[in-house]
Design a protein that fits this description.
The chain has ten helices and twelve strands. The protein is of the alpha+beta class and about 425 residues long. The radius of gyration is 40 Å and the shape is elongated.
């Protein structure tokens, strides 16, 4: 009996030791687990002393995971929104070529037809090359309409020599190419326009250096003055155009329309007299006012009048009329000259564009006047329109927003006194 009791005691003792060891080992293991989970989370590592402490630590860890999960989700949402509103098209695939992300700018190429289908084909081809570890780039000319130029570039996504996928970027560079083309044409045209009078001045100077008949010398000196004046007008127009383009928001003040008309007529009066052209100028109302950069708008109206004078026949008249409605003022310049062919109407506001180059050279035009008019109109929130028929003349309409409540400004002299007759 005693042996049995001792045996049971030993068994109970051994059982208690085993349970104590199991609990100790469990606590140690739980401590190691908590330490592992705490690494990189900001939680304090250390041994777990009680189940309650373990629960507290796990609750803190879960709260931290939830916060970081929410922050990561918000970050992913911001990134997705940023990709969605970007003008740059983005396509991302994983290492197996499966689509991960395609933003809106690149979405229009998926399943597209005609020109956009070419872009989708280029994206797919370059992505496959990127999955093979190669960077690829291609420029596409899409003839539309509208005509566009796209740059497609794809690169592999690699981390520690492991290929994670590939990303393709699609950039619309149509506007950049257009600006580059305009700049190139502008430089070529400026060079050509300046070369002509400079070449003429050099030739005239050589002839004058030889000397000879005083009458011939006098005529050559007159030609030198004409070419120098022509060169000066080109430079002045270039400076005006450059200033107008650079001044995105021109300084504005209320200006009576009759002042603008009078100043513009004064600028072209001598040229009209010399050409035998009558300026028939209407009388604007004293209370008609526009808020504008006075110098720019006067330059625009003067250019319209000068253009009409140059392309009118001697003895004819150029009309300037001012109309108004509730919101705007219209200055209409009409001539009865040679007119403009329909094919040229869309291009006459381009820099240096001339309908009749031979006649323009004879009249001394620079080809910049109408371009200046268009830029002035756009800078002031207005527009310029043209109506023309070959052999019947042209009418240009400069429309500007009307200023309200500016009051009357007494004029110093009637506008008609400033016109040529």
């Amino acid at each position: 009996m005693l042996v049995v009791v001792v045996t049971l005691g030993v068994v109970a003792l051994l059982g208690g030791v085993l349970v104590w060891r199991a609990r100790r080992d469990a606590r140690r293991e739980l401590g190691r687990v908590v330490d592992h989970l705490a690494a990189g989370t900001g939680l304090d590592p250390g041994p777990v002393r009680s189940p309650e402490e373990l629960i507290e630590r796990l609750d803190a860890l879960l709260a931290r995971v939830r916060r970081e999960g929410s922050a990561a989700a918000a970050e992913r949402e911001r990134l997705a929104r940023a990709f969605e509103v970007a003008d740059l098209g983005v396509v991302v695939v994983d290492g197996g070529g499966r689509l991960v992300l395609r933003n809106g700018a690149a979405g229009r190429f998926s399943g597209a037809r005609h020109a956009d289908a070419l872009a989708e084909g280029a994206i797919g081809e370059l992505v496959q090359r990127a999955l093979g570890g190669q960077v690829g780039e291609r420029e596409l000319q899409l003839f539309g309409p509208p005509r566009r130029v796209l740059q497609v570039r794809a690169v592999p996504l690699v981390r520690e020599e492991e290929l994670l996928g590939a990303v393709a970027f699609v950039r619309d560079v149509s506007e950049a190419r257009r600006i580059e083309s305009v700049r190139r044409d502008f430089v070529a045209n400026v060079s050509h326009e300046l070369k002509t009078p400079i070449g003429a001045l050099a030739l005239l100077a050589e002839t004058l250096a030889v000397g000879g008949d005083p009458e011939v010398t006098r005529r050559l000196a007159g030609r030198v003055l004409e070419e120098a004046d022509r060169l000066g007008r080109i430079v002045d127009d270039l400076l005006d155009l450059s200033l107008i383009e650079a001044q995105e928001a021109p300084s504005r003040e209320p200006v009576p329309v009759w002042m603008i008309v009078a100043d513009a007529v004064d600028r072209v009066r001598s040229a009209a007299d010399a050409a035998g052209i009558t300026l028939d100028v209407g009388t604007p109302a004293d209370d008609l006012v526009v808020t504008c950069d006075r110098r720019q708008v006067v330059s625009a109206v003067a250019n319209l009048l000068d253009n009409a004078v140059k392309y009118s026949e001697p003895g004819s008249a150029v009309e300037l009329r001012v109309e108004r409605d509730a919101d705007r003022v219209e200055l209409a310049v009409r001539d009865r000259g040679i007119g403009i062919p329909t094919r040229d109407l869309e291009r006459i506001f381009e820099r240096f564009y001339r309908v009749d180059r031979a006649r323009s050279r004879a009249t001394g035009g620079t080809g910049l006047g109408l371009s200046i008019v268009r830029h002035v109109a756009q800078a002031h929130g207005g527009e310029v329109l043209v109506e023309s028929a070959e052999g019947e003349g042209s009418t240009f309409r400069l429309r500007l927003p009307r200023a309200g409540g500016a009051g009357r400004t007494p004029r110093a002299s009637p506008v008609r006194e400033a016109s040529a007759s």
